[in-house]
Design brief:
Number of helices: 7
Radius of gyration: 16 Å
Strand content: 15-25%
Strand order of the largest sheet: 1-2-4-3
Order of helices and strands: EHEHEHEHHHH
Largest sheet: 4 strands, mixed
Number of strands: 4
CATH architecture: 3-Layer(aba) Sandwich
Helix content: 55-70%
Number of domains: 1
Structural class: alpha/beta
CATH class: Alpha Beta
Distance between the termini: 20 Å
């Protein structure tokens, strides 16, 4: 499992371990993910450029593979050869982490892990375009957050669960 971070100073070792744990829970395999933390202005520009949406967002995903079939083929080949699968890039807005953590009444750690998990699921082909897809993705997000000890129950009570 490799997570390549654009600014190592943003994360401590414990948080990096949690991100790797989240990625592993999402994928179940050895993957490589590029992770960038950016400002509100930077994510606004990326959102406008790559999605045609002229507003800031909290997280963006840039998958390495264009389809689920391509991803599955790459994963199969990589596993046979004992290689790491490059999934793609995750871009998270630091300002949105702080804003949303306060808004939802939980820690910045939980918000960072949730946004990262959400984005990794997008790299794996999950989306939330239809109600059914949204339910499936949310269910998977909750399973992963629960496995990290950061499930909704812990967030609603204002404290994270111990591992």
């Amino acid at each position: 499992m490799e997570i390549i971070v654009n600014d190592e100073g943003v994360l401590n070792g414990e948080m990096m371990d949690k991100l790797k744990e989240a990625a592993s829970a999402c994928t179940g395999m050895d993957v490589e993910i590029s992770l960038s933390f950016v400002s509100l202005d930077e994510i606004h520009e990326l959102n406008r450029t790559y999605r045609g949406v002229d507003r800031p967002t909290d997280v963006l995903s840039f998958p390495m593979f264009g389809s689920l079939e391509e991803l599955e083929d790459a994963c199969g080949n990589a596993q046979e050869e004992g290689q790491t699968v490059p999934l793609g890039d995750v871009v998270i807005c630091m300002d949105k982490i702080e804003e949303q953590a306060e808004q939802f009444g939980h820690s910045k750690e939980r918000e960072t892990l949730y946004l990262f998990t959400h984005s990794v699921l997008h790299l794996l082909g999950y989306d939330h375009e239809t109600d059914e897809d949204k339910r499936e993705m949310r269910k998977r997000e909750e399973e992963i957050m629960d496995s990290l000890g950061l499930g909704r129950d812990a967030a609603d009570s204002g404290e994270e669960k111990e591992q």
